[in-house]
UniProtKB/TrEMBL annotation:
It holds the Pfam family CTLH. InterPro entries: CTLH/CRA, CTLH_C, Ubq-SigPath_Reg. Residues 614-623 have a biased composition (Low complexity). Residues 624-635 have a biased composition (Polar residues). This is LOW QUALITY PROTEIN: uncharacterized protein LOC120263933. Residues 36-92, 436-493 form the CTLH domain. It comes from Dioscorea cayennensis subsp. rotundata. Residues 285-332, 601-635 are annotated as: Disordered. The lineage of its organism: Eukaryota, Viridiplantae, Streptophyta, Embryophyta, Tracheophyta.
Amino acid sequence: MDSMPVNWDALDSLVLDFAQSERLLDDSPSSDSHQSRLLIRQIRRCVEDGDIDCAIDLLRLHVPAILDDHRILFRLQKQRFIELLRRGTVKDRDSAMKCLRVALAPCALDAYPEAYEEFKHVLLALIYDKDDKTSPVTNEWSERRRFDLAGILSSILRAQLHAYDPLLMMTLRYLMSIHKVFCTHQDIPSPISDITERFLFEDRDPPISSHESLYEVPPFEEVDIQALVHAAGLTRQDAVDSLRFAKGDLFQAFQNELCRMKLNALMLDELVREYCVYRGIVESTTPSSSDCTSQRKQCITNGSSNGEVSDSTVNKEGVQESNADVVSSQNNDVEMRSADETAGAHGDCSTSDMTHQVKYHRRLRRSRNHATGQRRRKRWRGRIERSEVTPDVDSTSSILQEFTSLVHSNRDMPGEEQVSESNSTFDNVNDIEDHKYEIILEMMELANKGMVAEVVEEVNALDPEFFVQNPILLFQLKQVEFQKLVNAGNHAMALRVASSHLGPLASKNESLLKTLKETLLALLKPNEDVMTKGLSLLATSLQVAMSRRFGIEEPQLMKIMRATLHTHNEWFKLQMWKDRFEEFLKINILKELDAPLPIDSTSKTQADNETHGSSSQVTSSSSKITDYGSSPTQVASNESVFDENAILKVMEFVALPRSDAIHLLMQYNGNAEAVIQQMFA
């Protein structure tokens, strides 16, 4: 799984879009969608905290049309009645009685057919105590009702305001859910199970149930229903209800279902920041040595050193809003992987091997003087939202005022507090680490520009043993240099590069001989376009290898994407179906690689050499990323043998995955009726 090639430029784009959409960068513009998501989070938090008055006031102020729907208003007023009784004071009990007469009873008359029966049932809360576990209204007293109502209200508001989560959030939800299903189905261990278990929760917001008759024939194509069933893990009836709510729009229904999945949003922020620092998208700030001890204690206190969030922190959809300086102080040890990780087992603030570090320091300064210039990077802003815990207030007016000012505020957080200087030894270590990290990014930038000769020269000056340990990477860089010389018409120098470098490297690795022959064909037919292809993948391979050499750990988001994209391929091979949603979620672009023609046959080998820490028990199939039509055990033509309607009919009536339906049809010569009759006999 870890050897799956990925279009990192495409992931960069998704990550940057997420960071800007959530206003995590200092120059992120405010948008209506972001403000709407803030509003939804605030209303959700009010309902979860039992402050229904606050939620209704926010709805009346910002989305009054929602309250025109008496189905929603009835559920809100019913929960408000319960919360007023829960407080237990005489004043609140009087308010609950007023709520019954003025608000709840009128709504119950025309909300929906079952509403009046629900109204009569909730009246029992007047005589049964909330602590009575045997009462007939135990469910009405349950605080779980708050979270269910908050989830349903969030889904309605999300669709009403078109305030869906950024694409990265939905793509990760989808890929991780498929990854979990695939690993369970194939009974293989997941190399990212420790991440997925903490990141994507099993709990979901409740579906929005339909009030139409269940006996009505749904006015939707069965292929759409089945696509939603298997993509979102729904029952058929839930998929039909979801399509009804989306007025038949399959992709809107799909978005609604993805956003129902709960994830650890704070952990996602950390993953994104770690990735952005690694890729040079945002500024890197190495923590000072004086913070090392406190950070280590903080990680121990939090129970994790890589962004794990306690249950109490994420029990409300995993969303914790925090200001920038809190995030910085508590998570630097996790997010700033460019800090001193030279020997992970030796601790974050190790001073061992200082002489070796100083030797690198001189090389790094020399290389920086030859660099093409550091590209401008953005500053991480962090979430600037009110605290997760709502302060106690006497009225909702202060919350409304606070939220309204928050939505329209464009102020940045104050800069991070400056820490006092530590001793010179640790300052030197931090300075070295900053230089090491910068030079890796500069080498990646040079490689992206095709300046591979300069890359090889600078890396050799920095670490003469680097290419000894990474010969295939050197071969790829020299291939690009050879092609560049051929395109410039300098055949003599190109042949010198081939004889001095490509030939000796290929003689030591027989798998490179075929690639060498293909490379030499460029002498007969130069190709200018080949210079622009695959440089990004090559530059990322260089970055990963150099970072590993210098003790800078690869970001977890990279590991997630490699593993989940691999299982996405394998899952749809098993299903013998093309994913209808991969283009919508940009998964197809994440798999598209513009590899230079002479490097095609070495790309996977290089990726395999970069793999580290993966499970040897994980089975891996071909690395091709465009073949979706065939199963590993069946020929690609199997699917076309049977009529599509027959496949869908078996999937519908027997509630089977597509691949199982096809296998059954194979046993009965494609006769769907025979399959169904046999299954129900």
